[in-house]
TrEMBL record:
Protein name: gamma-butyrobetaine dioxygenase
Highest taxon in the source lineage: Eukaryota
MF annotations from Gene Ontology: gamma-butyrobetaine dioxygenase activity; iron ion binding
Record pathway: Amine and polyamine biosynthesis; carnitine biosynthesis
Catalysis performed (reactions): 4-(trimethylamino)butanoate + 2-oxoglutarate + O2 = carnitine + succinate + CO2
Keyword Magnesium in record: no
Domain TauD/TfdA-like residues, every copy: 120-367
Species the sequence originates in: Ptilonorhynchus violaceus (Satin bowerbird)
Occurrences of domain Gamma-butyrobetaine hydroxylase-like N-terminal (ranges): 13-92
Function: Catalyzes the formation of L-carnitine from gamma-butyrobetaine.
A GO cellular component annotation in the UniProt record: mitochondrion
């Protein structure tokens, strides 16, 4: 039910508009923001959901000339140049500047809630075909992927191409130097350590890119009888542990730029170099992305010599935590399983398996960006919950 407005008035010499709601609460809106977000056809293009008003035409010191309550569901503002703007009550309520309202909007748009886990993970599972054809299941998949960081889709056909279908379900896949999809199997003269039968340590994929893929898909097409178990660990959970256990080590890993390199030929020839911090943090010091791949960490290390050993000591402590029994979760994919996980949060690895002249283990992999995944999630949310 949309909110009703009881009263509206200008405050602070016209620099703010205060809305009093029928439930007794109040919201205060800066006039420069109201003018910047006028919804009239001259200032806003509804078909694109985009602002037409040029910023150079905005007076940052603007005040209202007159403000009136058109009815309980709308206010009207007249500006000094006689331009008139109208704002719907529901539109205003959603954009209230109170901390509580902003928190609600953040949660609605970005789903920031994290459910941390260790070896006790109850691996979420959803049938692949349900995700493909049922909006409720697809919405549940993406919400769980965002919150938990990993979801197993079961029952896909054990053949190449299923990830292309999954990519179309969300929008599109991320093209990289290894192609739209890529085949993980033991190969002669492998151009990536994943294309061997050896053990893979915990890592995130592609920290050598300035913007690493946000989501990864691994589809099991063929599984070896011996070995080849997959392992995952919640990087955010482990980062929080490191921060409490050794704040100095956390500070080193979240501030030191590490060089990564990937040179070779696949989808095309490539020579990629990048600097990344092992733990990327936000303004509050909270981990928002893990960039760790020991295989592609460069021999070049662009820091003063005296800082090298402390860095290694910090990384060793982080790596030990990743590999501790209480944090890692081990499982073995079956043909038709598709593991979907947050590549910014969940580190993955693989136990070794016996090499053979034939291909005994075959996974198809693909990436998607979080922008694409979150876009589909919001569209599904609107469809499933019938929300604006």
């Amino acid at each position: 039910m949309s909110p009703g407005i009881q009263k509206v008035e200008a405050l602070d010499e016209g620099h703010f508009v205060c809305v009093e709601w029928e439930d007794g609460s109040q919201s205060s809106y800066p006039c420069v923001w109201l003018r910047d977000n006028c919804q009239c056809p001259l200032c806003f293009l509804p078909s694109a959901g985009a602002r037409r008003l040029l910023f150079e035409d905005l007076d940052v010191n603007i005040v209202v000339k007159d403000v009136a309550l058109a009815d309980t569901k709308k206010i009207s503002i007249t500006w000094p140049d006689e331009h008139t703007s109208e704002y719907e009550a529901e539109w205003l309520k959603k954009r209230c500047f109170s901390e509580e309202a902003r928190a609600v909007m953040r949660a609605d748009l970005f789903l920031p809630e994290c459910l941390y886990w260790g070896s006790d993970l109850q691996l979420p599972k959803i049938p692949f075909e349900e995700v493909m054809y049922n909006d409720e299941s697809a919405y549940k998949w993406l919400c769980t992927l965002k919150k938990v960081g990993v979801v197993l889709l079961t029952g896909a056909a054990a053949r190449q191409g299923e990830l292309i279908r999954l990519g179309h379900r969300i929008g599109f896949l991320r093209l990289t130097f290894y192609g739209p999809t890529w085949q993980v199997q033991d190969k002669a003269d492998a151009n990536n350590v994943a294309y061997t039968s050896g053990k893979l340590c915990f890592h995130t994929d592609y920290p050598v890119l300035q913007h690493p893929p946000g989501v990864q898909f691994l589809h099991c097409i063929k599984q070896t009888a011996a070995g080849g178990e997959s392992e995952i660990v919640d990087g955010f959970h482990v980062s929080n542990k490191l921060k409490k256990q050794n704040p100095e080590a956390y500070q080193i890993l979240s501030s030191t730029a590490v060089d990564y390199v990937d040179v070779g030929v696949d989808y095309c020839d490539f020579a990629v170099h990048c600097k990344q911090r092992i733990i990327d943090v936000d303004s509050r010091g909270q981990a928002v992305r893990i960039n760790y791949n020991n295989a592609t960490r460069d021999t070049v290390f662009d820091i003063p010599a005296e800082k090298v050993r402390p860095f290694y000591a910090a990384l060793k402590e982080f790596n030990d935590l990743l590999n501790s029994a209480e944090h890692k979760f081990t499982y073995k994919l079956k043909p038709g399983d598709i593991m979907t996980f947050d590549n910014w949060r969940v580190l993955h690895g693989r136990q070794s398996y016996p090499p053979c002249s034939e291909v005994t283990r075959h996974l198809e992999g693909a990436y998607a960006d979080w922008d694409v995944v979150m876009s589909r999630l919001r569209l599904l949310k609107k469809r499933v919950l019938n929300r604006d």
